[in-house]
Protein 1
Amino acid sequence: MRLFLLLAVSGIVSLVGGLYFQEFNLGSSELRFIADFGFGAMTLLGSIVTVVATVQLLYGEIEHRTILPILSKPVSRGEFLLGKLLGAWLTICSFIGILTLALLAALWIRQWQMPDLGEEALLEQGAVSSSGVLLFALMQCFRLMVLASVTAFFSAYASSSLFAVFMGFFVWVIGQLRGSLDAQWGEGIGQSLLKTLTLLIPDFRIFDLGAYAFGEAEASLVSLLGLVLYAVVYAALYGSLAAVVLKNREF
Amino acid sequence: MFGRPAPAELYHFSDRLALKESVQAIELRELTKDFPLMERGRYLRAVDGLTLRIPENSVFGLLGPNGSGKSTTIRMLLGLSEPSRGEIRIFGASPQEAEARRRVGYLPDAPYYHKFLTGRELLRFFGKLLGMSRSELERRAEELLAQFGLADAMDRKLGAYSKGMLQRLGFAQALLGDPDILVLDEPTAGVDPVGAAEVGDFVRGLREQGKTVLLCSHLLTQVQDLCDAVGIMNKGRLLASGSIDELLGVGGDARFAIEGLTGSELGEVARFAQEKGGDLVPLGQNLEDLFRSLVSKDDQRGGEA
Ligand SMILES: Nc1ncnc2c1ncn2[C@@H]1O[C@H](COP(=O)(O)OP(=O)(O)OP(=O)(O)O)[C@@H](O)[C@H]1O
Ligand SMILES: [Mg+2]
């Protein structure tokens, strides 16, 4: 419940944040600025909410031993984990949903407040397409699904919530930086080995499709499906690892 | 070890065994649990070679001082913890199988429930885990909450429940799926004397309904007239087990704590006691005394070794 309060508050904060910038008149690039701001909030707050919610939902049960009466019922540990992950994902998606609505509202209000800019000018100077915003949000949901199952894996293994939260954030940061690290590394056996190792950590940056919203790139269905598949594979991988760890855990 | 049953009784017993071979509700064979300690290679043996059979429709009391391994045994019985060695059978099935667990209701040793739920919501949640239909679940939840005196409190958050209320909710939760076996880890912990007596009546009621009950308790007087059989543990090992009558030697070789006297001298002692309006009471008559002497002897032996 506290989490939902947090959800609501951060949604409103970004909305107000978006509107606040009407004080500065940045012209038409302002819309783009608001969108960028919203995307940033989604990525950042979404990741925080994901890690915290997953640890709370899964490790919280272990920590408070509420998992004992649950697992004494005819429920397998795999089913328990799946239920928790779905619960976490649902929370995350509704959070992203709230932020998306807030962002769209902010964009729309601002657009409406700028009648001086004609339709054409808007189109020319970096309009933000709402379908692009929705696409960005959708991909964030998939990105956070991966982050949730990675965090679930560490929660299943952890013996303190701090460890699980820390590892969740750690993987998030590494996953965000991975792409740029890859690009910097040269060739060589050591490097290829390291590269193979980094495959263990999903590349989170590829989910950031902000460019589509600004009309700078065209979305192709194939690449989007590939991205979804990428997310599902990693989520399944870490979900299964979490299930194995949980199966062997003592309560 | 303690007072053998008369031959006739023995035959009777084995006849029953032959007929009902398949209806051991719970069977533990050489059950052992080691917990690794911080130092590498060292471990704590919480349960050590425990072998028990609990027949269907009986009440079994698992007794032992704090830390003797009762809760650990129960956790293994419910598949919450994997035995290091040995075997567990619930109606012939392993507790790892969900269907075996469906037949067991569990009252944990502390109220491990979500504080932010209300009593009714908790039962709904567990009912869903049991796969109960919605209408059946609602009916059964209200019935159980009323039975355990929580009708007024069922829409309040568990965080505001008292210890005794949580314990009663625990009973309701354990009975929700109408299990054949009830595993009660310290059902009288934190319950007032009136409540403890009610727990006793409740367990008797379960036996009348044909259920099997395994309970841990430190209220030995209550255990003595509640349980059909008991097992006494210390440091993970089973020191004694059997029916109360067997263990206390009723009708068999009653034992006294007087040593080194001849028969006539003993008779004189008894007569003297009776003249003074007293009586010589055999030692084993009381489960509490038996428990204490067994455990202290075992501790001494452990100290010497
Ligand atoms: N998860 C665990 N990890 C390590 N040691 C454990 C664990 N659980 C129990 N133990 C140890 O196993 C021993 C038996 O504990 P257990 O809880 O089974 O005792 P108990 O008989 O239920 O005691 P009580 O009457 O106090 O409830 C204790 O020494 C305890 O410290
Ligand atoms: Mg205990």
Note: Chain B has eleven helices and nine strands.
Protein 2
Amino acid sequence: MITLNSISKYYETEAGVVSALVNINLSIGESEFISIMGQSGSGKSTLMNIIGCVDRPSKGQYLIDNIDVGTLSDSNRSRLRGKLFGFVFQSYNLLPRLSAIEQVELPLLYQQIDNRKERAIQALISMGLSDRIHHTPNQLSGGEQQRVAIARSLVVNPKIILADEPTGALDTKTGLEVMRIFNELVQKQGISVIIITHESNIAEQTNRIIRISDGKIIEDTDKIVKVKA
Amino acid sequence: MTILDGLQMAIRSILANRTRSSLTILGLLIGVSSVIALIAVGQGAQEGVKARISNLGTDLLFIRPVASSSGNVRGSANSGATIFAEDAEAIRNASIPGILHVAPQLNFNAQAIAGENNQQVSIIGTDHEFLPARDLIIESGSFISEKDVKNSALSMVLGSDIASSLFLEDDPIGENVRLSFGGGRISFNFRVTGVLQEIGGESQQDNYVFIPVTTLQSRIRALRNTSGNTIINQITLRSSPGINQDSVSTLVSDFLTAHHNKQEPDFTITSQTQLLEAASKVNAVLTLLLGSVAGISLCVGAIGVMNIMLVSVTERTREIGIRRAVGATSPDIALQFLLEAVTLSVCGGLIGIIVGIAGAELVNEKEILGEVMTTVIQPWSIILAFFVAVIVGIVSGIYPAYRAALLDPIVALRNE
Ligand SMILES: Nc1ncnc2c1ncn2[C@@H]1O[C@H](COP(=O)(O)OP(=O)(O)OP(=O)(O)O)[C@@H](O)[C@H]1O
Ligand SMILES: [Mg+2]
């Protein structure tokens, strides 16, 4: 479904050129549950942002369903991003002051999808938040906020959910609950979920682990499996 | 995103930051309301002056002397002033078509003593035609008569205010008033023959004392020049209603120039229409000036809106990042900030209209610094102020909105 061909990302800084990603080759299909691991500063978030069309590579080609993302205009990339990807962040990234239902309605609003209320409520119910619909972020626990964020990423029926350290701010039990939700999405809805994590017990619950060091992929269990097969 | 969704979002953000939004609105409110109120004050002054001028009637023409420009001076002691009491008589006898009444006017100050009361009064030396020329009405007794003029009679007519200040409750008709001129060197006893009806308004008209101009002319030597003529201040002409004052003015001018044996007029004729025009011009400048001051405060309000929107964009960088992540395009983001600016301006504009009207109504007919203030609210100033506020909102929202739209989603998202 998505293919990265020789993707590199450089940053020009006063101290010189920083290579965040070097020559990344990667393909991801449907129904995949992937974790990206690596040390801090190794380029995990950069890779995820490029996949989610939030960031743009300095070099290389990025194809989504055989469309070259590099050729799209800013607005078209925004629409593609809204349609295909759902984002979940370590710090939840909910908008302050908006209630849970309004948070979930937001992507629908930008994509001009009808029945916003019903869809948003449905997504919140599926996250077990039926009694938190009108709560604002500061009236919700961390785990609840993260579930609102997942509901928000889900509501547009994305192909891929990108989660940057989704369990990083949660306790073990809540973290596992979030992983259970992701697993269910992969199994039942055919969505691919890509998470970044530092915890190996979290990574172990995914089907494919990509390890990054200094902007390069040093291990991709998918290939190992394929090699073994 | 539809405009309606955007508007809803804008109102939410504005409500979320109440204090700041209120202060921004206040800035615009002051601008809009001062435009409305100050233009109302300027317009009120204009109408006031117009009313004062048209109080005299619009069919009047005034002949006044001009200071001779160098070259024409004939070396006479009074070379600067060039209309005489007998000019009024001459114009009257010339029967110029379109002229109904002609009245000379010599302004003079004197001390008036009536019994215990002693006060400085303004005197108008004139003749019997002053009453119809100025459209005055006699309250009691009679005005200066033709006979009084012929006989240089020591009779006087009082304005309503001066009558009550000299005689209080008493009936002044038939009473004596002593007028002393030139610091008491010359004085005469005058008999009051009439009192005028109150004119009212803000003019000093009710404070004048009227006596025959011939009385002054024949009894006070200092008022005569070498050829026995008396220089007067002005001649009032009443033209037939509706007649073209310009053509009447030309006829009179030609006649009087010839009468003076001059090539060029050595006097000016101003019609009431011209006075009105001149006064309107002065007041238009005043209104413009007040309007400009208000316009400046409107600009300051606009800068306030822009400032707040810029701060808002910076503060909400992360929010912009999140919105971009869930699919907002740059135009969506731009629209959101633009709508916020416009909503703020429309609020400021609407409340400003209410405050402006209330302010103008509040000072209307009130005495401020001894002057009765009249304000006339101009509908166009309301529309103007409101549209300027909205345009200002759009203009001052565009740059911040553009800044917000240009934000790279990744930079916005990484912003903590
Ligand atoms: N705007 C930027 N300018 C310069 N360097 C940058 C910029 N953004 C990221 N980098 C660098 O790129 C590298 C990769 O950053 P990235 O955020 O992808 O790391 P990460 O693997 O997600 O780290 P962490 O686990 O701490 O989140 C880092 O060395 C970082 O300093
Ligand atoms: Mg990271």
Note: Chain B has 13 helices and twelve strands.
Protein 3
Amino acid sequence: MVVVERKELSFLERIYFPAILKGLKITMSKMFAPRFTRQYPEEPLPTNEVTRGQPRLAVNPDDTIRCVSCGLCEAACPAYAITIDGHETERFIEREPERFDIDMLRCILCGFCEEACPKDAIYMSNELELADFSRAALVYDIEKLKRPVSALQDRIDYVKKINDRWQTSSST
Amino acid sequence: MSMILIWLLITVACYGAVIGTAALMTFAERKVSAAMQYRYGPNRVGPFGLLQPLADGVKFIFKEEVIPAGANPWIFKLAPILTALPAMLAIAVIPFTGVIGTFEGTEVLGSIANPEIGILYVLAVTGVGVYGAILGGWASNSKYSLLGGLRASAQMVSYELSLILAVLAVVATTGSLNLHEIVAGQSGWFGWNVFSQPLAFVLFLVCSYAETNRHPFDFAECEPELVGGFHTEYSSMKFAMFFIGEYTAMVVMACLTTTLFFGGYLVPFWADAPWWMGLIAFGAKTSFFLLLFIWVRWTLPRFRYDQLMHLGWKVLFPLALINIFVTGLVISFGPGAN
Amino acid sequence: MTKIILNGREVEADPKKPLIAACHANDAEVPHYCYHAGLTPVGSCRMCQVEVKQGEMPPRVVAACRTPVAEGMIVDTESPKAHETRRECLEFLLKNHPLDCPICDKAGECMLQDFTFDEGQAAARTDEPRRKLEKRKDLGDVIVLDQERCILCSRCVRFFDEVTGKMQLVIADRGAHSVVETFADRPLTGNYQGNVADLCPVGALTLKPFRFKARVWNLFKKASTCGECSRGCSITTEVLRGDEVKRFRPRYNADVNTWWMCDTGRFAFEHPNRADRLAGGQRRGYADSELISTEEALDQLADALGEHRAPVVIASPFLTVEEGAELLELCKQLGSEARFLSPAPNELGDEILHTGDPCPNRRGLTELGFAPVEAAEALELLAASKAALLVGERIGELVGTEGLAGLPTSLQLYVFDTNACLAPAAQLSIGVPDHTERLGTWVNVDGHRGKISAARSAPAGVRPLTSSLQTLRASIAGAEVTA
Ligand code: SF4
Ligand code: SF4
Ligand code: SF4
Ligand code: FES
């Protein structure tokens, strides 16, 4: 059993008013302290390579998508946000997604897809804004998800650096 | 004829002033709280965000009206009106300033009406306000609302008692129920009732917070426990009515505090100040109490319900009784007794 | 039966089968690639090595698929030495493997993946370039070969040789240059090619119709029975996202099909995946056709049937035994003769599995008392009657859409089918589930009772045929009582 010893309060403490006045003094003094709210739309959030924004698909400079629709991100996604259908291509890499949907309303920006991807094809971009007038419009299809590699380069380098930390020298 | 015109003018001005202040209060509430928390508060709508109340109003109008299943629709609709109305009615007798002038042989006063029983009238109409909360809570067919309504009524009834006793002390010292006379009775050096009746003032202030359901006594809506209390189920304009009611009640209470304890429209050290000076003085004093309402809200945490009842019945009520008893003794046998 | 000691436990082993079979039968997993219970063991992959001690000899590591069981043999499948040998084998198998699992259709059910996960080392120890071979070799209509992925287990080669009796694949060249090829690059033929894609332990042989269509772990799999011929091979139905049938695959059943199935059945998902399914009822009304609910349609059908004496009733050959029994009751109630449509035999029959009779439940329906009618006969019967009831999956299509369209409108035609019957004579069509959406039994040509099961749900609003028929019978009986 826990016995809580309560301090006997003095009369001054019991009438409570000095404490109230003290509290009022504190709040009033804060009123004139400098503010640090960010004026959001005018002052956007600074993002850097560590920012885990919405996932995006990397597109090579030659306009080919890196994703091979292996479905590992789909399987890794804890929010069941990703749906992929693959199809065959004429390229050397025979497979690419025909449909790649991420339901941005489901996505929790966890980055598991980025971690799961064996083809360095999906990255957490620095895009954070998400607003539209219908739910359907927020299920992003492949065209909305494509980003050139150059736009994701910082993140790609960062992820590589992090991954290299875990890799032993002998692995492929 | 023209007397009626003047009277209409005063009515419109008074109501405009009070309701405008109430609207501004919703804005001030957010601005002040923001400032206290290192934030900016609303600053998007209009200059400095001043049009925020307007935007809120428009938003409320366009919101969907929801009447919960199983609710009693008539009482459900009546409750917000019952909350807003008493506070509005009380405005009628508040003396905003003294004599403005004489017209056709009649003195034009700075209030809409000047009944002999002014303060009694105020207490009577504001007392009805509790019905809004309890009926709204009951008619919503929701447990949270019902609990909120019950709490509100218990709290208001408990604190109303001390409030009235505190006012009674003032009435006793002044010897009048007429608000203008109460104000007039506070002229001169340290004539304000707050000096002669400091305990009554403290009691009145505390009770006025409880009466308007403000922090630290906002048990009726107590978000963490009751979702939104008696107005949980309300939306759109009906919710806005509760909101307006609450803020108007605050303004009325601030006006009353000024009138009863701080010399109303009297300007200190300027006995024959013009009427507009009185108006400014009244506005300034009232503004301070309005600010105090907000200030206290963002400073103090909420009481526990048993503490609330303890405070109301075991502390404030006996104190109020003692106060009125001592006041009575002093009036009957004190230095000024006849 | 021979007694051996397997992992410290005395077990019975079949002396006619290799040691690996005894291990598998007794829950001792032994990795293997070239061994397949349905094919002759060749011992080419060396993955199945286990430690064996026999008599006075010191224990040694042997290939379990090529070692006969002997009395008193002491077998350890988990000994460190066995594990080490298997890991080394695996390393060699992976030496030239392209490791393109993200692209490979086999990923998720690949034995190379599984056993690498169990035994292997995650990292390669060489930086030598891997073998470059043909990655998209077209082997006919069904199979695509990726030579880089092949581990030369020769299962596919042996399958064509031993099961179909016609050798079509061969391991060409020798040593490090070995590749799987067809003779003179001729495409594969026959109705059993698909099986080699199942057989291939890696993703070297893939099915064209399934290529890159789905990831196998996303498929919902349910044991069922094939409906393409009266053999009724045991299969699994594999459905993607509760919606589209993506694959049928053979399921081992010693009494019917062992490990195999024909390509006709394997790729018979065209019909289940039809988009124009009838979800509810369709009636011929003032505005031509109107959609109504199944319940409403059943009510109207009961009223309509109450007015006719002995309508012609023709059941679909896809009817299960349970549905057949229900329908038989209805026939008795209506005073009709129970018939089922018997489609003409096709050319696909062979000695291996396919019977050539595209009627999965012929035996079951005949045993119940249904009389077979050919499509032409059926049309004659229909043309000569006032009212008729066609019952079951695909019945309209099997009787012949054109034939039905030519029927006189004096005939009142009522149809239970997966798709609406558009013939002018059709008064009312009621949707039924197809054989990937319902439960039941088909009796195959040898009397084996094959279960079919629901791998997905029928379109919303469709009721099982048995329940529809029960409702119908009850309301007809009710109407008679009140009349
Ligand atoms: S970030 Fe996480 S939740 Fe979002 S798509 Fe990727 S795996 Fe799914
Ligand atoms: S894990 Fe990478 S390659 Fe695989 S489907 Fe996702 S994005 Fe494409
Ligand atoms: S193609 Fe497959 S089954 Fe044929 S030899 Fe190669 S790995 Fe074995
Ligand atoms: S399974 Fe025994 S050697 Fe291949």
Note: The beta strands of chain B are 97-103, 106-110.
Protein 4
Amino acid sequence: MSFELTRNAFGRLVLTDGEGIRHEGVLPVRAFPVTAPEAGIAVVNTEGHEVAWIDRLKDLPAEIAALLKDELASREFMPAIQRIKGVSSFATPSTWDVVTDRGEASFVLKGEEDLRRLGQTTLIVADSHGIQYLIRDITTLDKTGRRILDRFL
Amino acid sequence: MPAHESSMNNTALSPTSNSPSLPDPLSRELVPRLAGNEAILSWLELDLDTRLTFSQGWIVVTNRRLLAKTPETGETWQEWGYRPGLMLKHTDHAGVGTLELVDAQQRLANWRYTLAVNVAALKLVDHFEQHLESHVTGEPVKQANEAICPKCKAPLEPDQEECPICTQEIHTPPSTWTLFRLWRFAKPYKNQLLAGFLLTLASTAATLVPPYLTMPLMDKVLIPYQNGAPIDPKIVGLLLSGLLGSALLAWGLGWAKTYILALVSERIGADLRTTTYEHLLRLSLEYFGGRRTGDLMARIGSETDRICVFLSLHLLDFATDVLMIVMTAAILFSINPWLALVTLLPLPFIAWMIHVVRDKLRTGFEKIDRVWSEVTNVLADTIPGIRVVKAFAQERREAERFRNANRHNLAVNDKLNKIWSLFSPTVSLLTEAGLLVVWAFGIWLVSKDQITVGVLTAFLAYISRFYARLDSMSRIVSVTQKAAAGAKRIFDILDHVSSVPEPTNPVHLGAVQGRIEVRDVGFRYGNRAILRGVDLAIAPGEMVGLVGHSGSGKSTLVNLICRFYDATEGAVFIDGVDIRSLPVAEYRSNIGLVLQEPFLFFGTIAENIAYGKPDATREEIIAAARAAHAHEFILRLPQGYDSLVGERGQSLSGGERQRISIARALLIDPRILILDEATSSVDSTTEKEIQKALDNLVQGRTTIAIAHRLSTLRKADRLVVLDRGQVVEVGSHDELMAKEGAYYQLYQAQARNVDTDIDDSDDEEGDA
Ligand SMILES: Nc1ncnc2c1ncn2[C@@H]1O[C@H](COP(=O)(O)OP(=O)(O)OP(=O)(O)O)[C@@H](O)[C@H]1O
Ligand SMILES: [Mg+2]
């Protein structure tokens, strides 16, 4: 590991790389946020250039990993749907009431094409504001949820 | 609490200064804390906390301070009075907005929210900045002299609370009685339909005559004969000719009704198809971006056809069946009510069964439609990409993909057929049971001398028809559901409102001068912000070069100027008029566009060049081709201008395609010319030649040219440098070089790579 990472008073991450160059306001970005969230995180600077690459978070010193995790948590917003409570109609646009890992929410699904399959069992739902909800494994939904999804897939 | 929902309501309320409708926690908790002359200017209901979980919080701007309450701070309101150096920064990423309050030393607080409440947030920031400034400078608050929409920056009428353009989004689902909506298409044919219906009525009645005649045949002829009376040839002749006559009548009427209704339904189907296609063409690029070709093709092609078959065959049969059942029932009751009652006993059962099965079938059929689209999608994906498939030797995989889609199709069908196959036999079973009951009850009645044998025979004759109809009626369930599913998918298209809507009160420009103004434009694809705060004014006749790294948003900006998409924030004006208030086609007819990926249609070269002006003369076509330096290579083709270019222009090289699309843009003699990498695939010599031609053509036209090879833009009056969605530099080549900024770097990088550049273009030539 050849870089230092701190947080400054403005809440920005500051990375000092192996050559001693300071990059202010760097951001961690996961390479495969859905299919392999833990495997590969790039740290990019404000210009969008990669300044560091991390194969695995757990190989890092704890405090740096914590900083990165913190930053990731406050940047990544892809609520994972755990339960579908109901939908207003099976024809789109329809309003969905869901329980996610980030609390309850309701959103408007504009069209069937906003439900996108990623692999066999994973599903990404984009709402009318472009927020993406994740259904990591449709088979783990309860029966109601599966039946509702079935009507859209 | 459904966080989104309530925040959306909040946006709809639009927090404006001194709005009477303060939401609850504000009026209850905050109003008592306000100082004497303090007033709440705007508020934002947060729907996320800083850890990005859904929860409720508040930010409020008053004329003295900023207040906030979030779940993290508990019940206390944090507050910051206005003071110099304070700043409220607003950013968004992946659908989540961030507000950060900072001063010169540190970040004081930050808040998060979903873009659902973005408008309120933007308003809040505006108010904050205005009042902060007035507080710091001591001058009164600068009210914007014209009210503008916080989202799109379009001027608002004094009486408008919200921007009419931005609030057009509708979120109501289409009604489920989809099939009835087909009436819109049937209406023009209502006379024929009425005629068809009357004929159906008449022909059904005619088919009911024969069983009725069996009654006198039994009672007046056969049974008396068995009891020793002679047969009366007159009566027999009369009855038999009645039978023949009614059969002939039924035949004639049946033919007429089928013919008329088939004609009508075919026309309805055709109307449906063309209307859907026309509507589809008017939808924005955003719609097409999110959908798959195969799916759309399936909807417009096979599903309209299915609806048509449904209307012409099944609906007609169904109507006949219903009429038949009603009439039969009436006749039966008129002959003997008791026997009639028993006969009709299985009917409610069947109705119930139909009801139960219907729901299952409908979802099943919708699913089949979707799976079917999947099959088409595989085809629509692979066939245009066949070169890539072959190049990477992936035929096996693509075949496997197709097989999988088919297997999926089979699986879904199998599941449905399980229910479906049970349905028909069950109806038959009920029918048989019904017949049995009628026999038994009938014999009993005959034995009690309640009815004659003739009546029983007539009943049996009627009832076998009746049940046969029921059986076919039960079949209508599946076809109706299929048609309804198809209709739903078609109305999905028809109900879709273009995201670049036609204005309700269009403004007509007349002669366009070509002054383009991009005012504070922001744009997102989904939740990805591509352009931010782009301001650009282009004078009539000016040539502007757009440069910047790949992916910096050049093409996107051009897309906005062409109104392929509408800006998420800000607006584009032409000659001072918001382009959203112009009729879309009329506006675009002023623009000649050469796309980065030139697209040619199946047809001849001449047709392709004249695409924007189908009535162009041959001379005009040749002049345009000459100007685009396409003339000579076209002449080298075996059929000259009449050569077919193949699907998507496959038989031409990349550079040739580009030159044709330049000619196409030039032919319409547009006021505004947009060249998106128009010469990227031609060799340097050809490029210079095209360039020379273009130099003349851009005279007097507003031109926006995008090019990676900066030398292409030497004629540009101004260069605009885009970087990650923002305009970073504007000026002439010399000015920008002197500045040694972003443009200078781009230029230097290219000057260094000049050798590789030449290699590149050689490669492209070879490959094309
Ligand atoms: N339909 C789309 N949906 C989502 N994102 C898109 C879409 N089209 C473009 N983008 C993204 O928008 C950004 C800007 O794209 P744009 O085509 O405007 O770039 P450009 O400046 O024209 O690049 P180039 O010089 O390579 O043509 C890119 O990052 C691209 O990934
Ligand atoms: Mg481009």
Note: The pocket of adenosine-5'-triphosphate (ligand 1) is lined by residues B 289, 525, 528, 530, 548, 550-556, 596 (CB under 6 Å).
